[in-house]
Amino acid sequence: MNARIRRLDPTVALPVYQTPGAAGFDLAVSVDTVIPPGEVRLVPTGLVIEVPEGHFLGVFARSSTPLKRGLMVANGVGVVDPDYSGPTDEVKIEVFNFTTAPVTVRKGDRIAQGIVMPATRVEWERSGRDPRDRARRLRRHRRLNQSSRSSVTSPSCTARMRMPQQPSGFLVGVNLPWIQYGCDFGAKRVAAGRWRGAG
Known about the structure:
CATH class of the largest domain: Mainly Beta
CATH architecture of the largest domain: Distorted Sandwich
Oligomer: single chain
Structural class: mainly beta
Distance between the termini: 62 Å
Strand order of the largest sheet: 2-11-6-8
Shape: elongated
């Protein structure tokens, strides 16, 4: 994939992937910036990046930035859209100083990383059903199951089976040597039964 990039300051280095397996490329500071304690500042990179259509540029913090500098990306993940590529649409890193002292970042300091990612657009389909209807149906189903289970006082079915084959449905019970006790909910009814291995 190719992407066009423009430097607003010719002395700014182009972002690079630091290792062959790196997912993101480092973004560096283009102007010395002081971030006061407990405040947010936009740190310039001196770059305009034209993200390919159908993608976006995610701006993430580098793992060392919070530990070594006391800074974090203030908005979690910055998002640069494909149409943010005008003459002055500079990529800036929104950082928060969570320490009690001013933090200075110098030109060339790598404080964030960028990852170009696909962006899927959706077409909305209006639903006429109330989302609460499903919750009501689930609650009613649970009540019916609980009522059915409480009505069973003795085993109502006995079947021989060949181990380790099990009855259809969801089996709840304990396995003992050659004997298995449980209830089968798969047929939408409760049946307390006993199954003996056939050898």
